Write the structure tokens for this entry.
Amino acid sequence: MMDFIATPAGLLSAFFATAAVVVLAGIRLSIYGDALGDRTGLGNGLIGLVFLAGVTSLPELVVSLTSVINAPELAQGADMATGNMLGSNVFNLLILAFMALLFPGKFKPASMKDPHTDSTLYGVLMLALFSIAYLAADTRWGGALIPGLRCAWLVITLPIAYALILRREHRQHKLEKEEQLPQETALTQLSALRFYSALCALCSLILGGGILLSLLGSRMALPPDQGGFGLEASLIGTLFLAISTSLPELVISFASIRMGFLDMAAGNVLGSNMFNLLIIFAADVAMRGGSMLQQISSRHWSTVGLILLLTGLASALLRTTSRRAATLIAAGMVGLYVCAIIFLM
């Protein structure tokens, strides 16, 4: 096996095969997440915001944590973890553009109850908190570490903000007083033991796949004479790892819009982007060698700027009532992404 992945062709084959397993497990786990909302009585809205966003972001979480723990160099692991998170957020926003281009007949933002303005603003807020921590990482006060956690003190604002966002969303769901009757499905009728055993098994499969993806990504950073591609860790995280770990969001969103659930698809994308930013906090805690943000390359600022531009275009896309305008905006988002990748390479 090691001889097989020692070659560039074998490395790519192993990478894409592992990514396929993560995608299939993520799809199945999302179905279980929907059933979990019915079984617990919490409703699909809240379960989708918390559980589904967390589930589809589980590969990003595992890959980033494994990157900072197993990378031979602190800077390499930090770059891969940060690039994975930021790159995943970029690709997630592109999913909205793909839906508009590939499913023009079903992409009808006017049919949604809300254009997800709150979720978009929450995502920008959390990105701003990350940017402040990133900018201040090399300063004396910004690089100070929290005792015990061993992470930069500004990074702690990310889980605090996310908790406040969830609290506000939960209150809004209660105020709406929308009663949703549980749907009787094969999964809701399963015994608790079988249901939760399958849920844990799927989570474990994604965890194992995420660990393997990060290890394969580390090998890609090796020189060509050692079986790698000689690419920078930041590019591997932003491109290879980010796209592969975002495939569950892509498939789930496509399945949702094909069934006419644009609201659910948009919510999954924007909710996952908020959850992804928590990865910075988790990865910073996991990397015990110091502040992770002090180790990463300045090249990630380009990705931060790209996320802001795509977020603005995505917000406009979810508000447009014209199919032609939606197509133009979506094409602009894809074109912007292609230009950014060429620039990063």
